[in-house]
Design brief:
With about 450 residues, the protein is an all-alpha fold. It has helices at about 1-5, 15-30, 30-35, 35-45, 50-70, 80-85, 90-120, 125-145, 145-175, 200-210, 220-225, 230-260, 270-280, 285-315, 335-355, 355-365, 370-390, 405-425, 425-455. It is globular. The model is unreliable at about 1-5 (pLDDT under 50).
Length: about 450
């Protein structure tokens, strides 16, 4: 009945609040926490928890801006449209396409990560074969309906959340001496070169690498277009979920460096598995491999959803092929889903055929993109807030903290991260590659307007 009375290009509203909250968890908590945190700990030491705290605070400020705008503009469906309304059409085009690009690369990265885990269990299968199969299965799930995607993601993300909560309880009991045979282990925080063995500068430099593992809470605003909940509920959920995720990250990292000497953690391996081994739990590596696989599949599932909705939004504004506006019988943007999958298959193929050139560039070029997006969103919030206060202040039911200083602080903080990336021998490549991709999309916007206007005149 619902589909018969809905507009032809109107997405279904089949997602419940539990789906939206877990979709947000699913898009953030992935291999970046369970494995990638080992690099931050190895480079910074126990003070890595401060790097995550600073990065999380910056992201939380951006989420508050998005919450303010989503409540003030309930008819605006996706956060790239906030940039369009606040800064201009070019900003909406850039945020939408850069966001799409970021997540299609994530899809390929997560497919490879999941394939490598399964390959370790079943070495007779090639990594690329497993990667293709994983993407095909999750693409099919997304094509079924928004509700089927939401249900799968709910259970994927729930598994991750439960795993983190259990780890926090187990590690907390060990660190405080309740289950540790030698008593409290908090001495590890300072016993191996001090709390910040690499110096204070390393803490701030670490923000450049940790901030990307915390991005993704804005997914809730994309899912809001298919949710039964109102815009204010979704906005509040964005903030509450972001805060809970930040607490999960901080507690997990803090307890890891309390249980395990930080200089024993190897980059590229799971510090969670190391901590479990230290606490004497058998099969720690296998347990964490299973959890990381669920986390990877969750991010892969979310990536397919996010890219399709981002392209759907672009198409509705005339910035992507109009065929992507059309919905299937299940009222999902099937063509947008398939286009994202095809691009990710290309990235997956590049990881096999040209790992050191094409695929390496794709991964590197996505490094700073989320910061570019967040900065544009912050400038949009500054302009829209001033407009609302002058014209319709009653629309500001949710307000940005300490406006305008909170917004400018976030912009300055993210700008500082970009400067640190430029000065870092390792991160500078990511920054320049991201700038190249951004320039390419800017050129695409110019070409669309230049040649599009010519064709209309003709």
């Amino acid at each position: 009945m619902e589909s018969s009375i809905a507009a032809p290009n109107e997405l279904s509203r089949s997602l419940k609040s539990r789906h939206v909250s877990m979709i947000t968890f699913g898009g953030i908590i992935g291999a970046g926490l369970f494995v990638g945190s080992s690099t931050a700990i190895g480079n910074i030491g126990p003070a890595a928890v401060l790097s995550y705290a600073i990065a999380g605070f910056l992201v939380l400020l951006v989420m508050r801006m998005i919450a303010e705008m989503s409540v003030a503009m309930p008819g605006t469906q996706t956060f790239p449209d906030f940039a369009r309304q606040g800064v201009g059409d070019w900003a909406g085009y850039m945020v939408g396409w850069l966001y799409w690009y970021f997540w299609v690369v994530v899809i390929a990265i997560e497919a490879i990560a999941g394939a490598k885990i399964i390959h370790g269990w079943y070495p007779q299968l090639e990594v690329w074969e497993i990667g293709v199969a994983l993407m095909a299965v999750l693409t099919a799930i997304n094509l079924m309906s928004a509700k089927s995607y939401g249900e799968f993601e709910f259970w994927f993300a729930s598994t991750k959340v439960v795993a983190i909560l259990v780890f926090i309880l187990v590690a907390g009991a060990y660190a405080t001496g309740v289950t540790s045979p030698s008593g409290s282990t908090f001495a590890n925080l300072t016993a191996h070169g001090g709390f910040a063995p690499a110096g204070v500068a390393a803490i701030f430099a670490g923000v450049a690498t940790t901030i990307f593992s915390l991005c993704g809470a804005e997914i809730a605003t994309l899912a809001a277009a298919e949710s039964e909940e109102g815009s204010k509920t979704i906005a509040n959920m964005t903030i509450s979920v972001s805060l809970r995720i930040l607490i999960f990250f901080l507690l997990s990292i803090f307890l890891i460096v309390s249980v395990v000497p930080w200089n024993e953690i190897e980059a590229g391996t799971s510090p969670f598995a190391h901590a479990l081994r230290e606490m004497g739990y058998p099969g720690a590596d296998l347990i964490m491999e299973a959890i990381v696989l669920v986390a990877v599949l969750s991010c892969l599932n979310s990536g397919i959803y996010i890219t399709s909705r981002a392209m759907f939004g672009l198409a509705r504004n005339g910035d992507a092929p109009q065929s992507c506006v059309k919905l299937s019988k299940a009222r999902v943007p099937a063509r947008a889903i398939l286009i994202a999958s095809l691009f990710s298959y290309f990235a997956l193929a590049a990881s096999i055929l040209s790992p050191d050139q094409v695929f390496n560039f794709l991964v590197t070029s996505s490094g700073a993109i989320m910061l570019f997006i967040y900065i544009l969103v912050a400038f949009a919030q500054l302009r829209l807030r001033a407009r609302f206060e002058a014209e319709t202040p009653e629309r500001l039911q949710v307000r940005m903290w300490l406006y305008p200083f909170g917004t400018w602080f976030a912009i300055a903080g993210m700008g500082g991260v970009l400067v640190m990336m430029a000065l870092s021998p390792t991160s500078s490549k990511e920054l320049w590659a991201s700038l190249i991709v951004t320039a390419a999309f800017l050129l695409g916007y110019w070409a669309k307007n230049h040649f599009g206007s010519r064709s209309k005149d003709a």
